[in-house]
Structure formats: structure tokens, C-alpha cells
Write a structure and sequence with these properties.
Strand order of the largest sheet: 1-7-2-6-5
Number of helices: 3
Radius of gyration: 20 Å
CATH topology of one domain: Alpha-Beta Plaits
Number of strands: 7
CATH architecture of one domain: 2-Layer Sandwich
């Protein structure tokens, strides 16, 4: 399922001489060099230098699902309330792309919030070492077919933990 994104993290390794300073000027040089290489329409928002052994792990994400106005019904509103009121939300998930095996998974713990604003469903999800909920599973839980969407789904933010 293709999802547009307003918030991506790019991690690159920059190899430089041991004596080269890694200060604000260095960050600006990296930012300028990277910006010049980006495709048209892409914007580099920030650059920060992390220690070489730093890893970044997502902790949460926000998705916007634009729904066709005629599909914003009492049934959708009731389904959102039902999902939020549920203590457990069990789904069958394939164990691999080519696998015929499935596992049962409770995805309720991954849903922080589901809100309907205007004609958009805004979903905030948690990610943990135990996993996360997939966008197609969110659509399944909300009983939203792709045909009911007015535009592509967008991930508008990701919160990162760095270790």
C-alpha cells in the first residue's frame, strides 16, 4: 500500500578525517551538499550529526486518511468509536510475503488515537519492539476500502527514539 510521507528520516554515514571538526559549519556543509543532490520537490529540513553507533527506531507515527465526503457516514463514526472502545483488536497477519501461514495478532495496543476531522481520519500509532499496526490493517479495522478514500494516505509525522 503506497503511502505519501511528509516526514522521513535519512541516515547517512559521512566519513571524514579524524581531525576535521564536526561543528555547525560542518553541519551546514553537509546540508548544502545533500540539498544540491535532492530531486526536485524534495526539501531537506534539518541536519544533525549523531555518534557513529546511534540507531534510530520509530516510536510513533501519524497518518491522515482523506475520506470521500459521501463516505463520512454514521457507520464510519460508529466504527471509529467501536475500535477505540475495544480492549482487543485481533487480526490475522501473514508471517511473510510468500508465506501461506498466518498469525493472530492483537493490534489494539498500537492504536493511540483515531479521530475524524472534517473528511479525514487521523490515526496515531505506536511502534514498539513487539511491532506496529500496518496501514492496510487500519483500513480493515475501520472498514474503509481504498475506493472510499479521496486521496492517497499520508504519513504526516514520525517520532524517533535514538539509541
Amino acid at each position: 500500500m503506497g503511502v505519501e510521507s511528509d516526514d522521513e528520516l535519512l541516515c547517512i554515514r559521512v566519513i571524514c578525517a579524524p581531525h576535521e571538526p564536526r561543528d555547525a559549519d560542518f553541519e551546514m556543509q553537509v546540508r548544502t551538499s545533500l540539498s544540491e543532490e535532492l530531486p526536485e520537490g524534495f526539501e531537506l529540513l534539518s541536519v544533525s550529526i549523531a555518534k557513529a553507533d546511534t540507531s534510530f527506531v520509530p516510536s510513533s507515527a501519524t497518518y491522515v486518511l482523506p475520506v470521500r465526503p459521501q463516505c463520512v457516514t454514521a457507520e464510519l463514526k460508529a466504527r471509529i468509536k467501536q475500535v477505540l472502545a475495544s480492549e482487543s483488536l485481533y487480526l490475522e497477519r501473514k508471517t511473510g510475503p510468500e508465506s501461506l501461514k498466518y498469525k493472530t495478532l492483537d493490534v489494539r495496543g498500537f492504536l493511540k488515537s483515531v479521530e475524524l476531522e472534517d473528511s479525514c481520519v487521523i490515526v496515531r500509532c505506536d511502534t514498539s519492539p513487539a511491532g506496529s499496526i500496518r496501514i492496510e490493517e487500519i483500513l480493515q479495522l475501520l472498514e474503509l476500502d481504498v475506493e472510499k478514500l479521496a486521496a492517497p494516505i499520508r504519513r504526516t509525522s514520525v517520532q524517533w527514539n535514538n539509541n
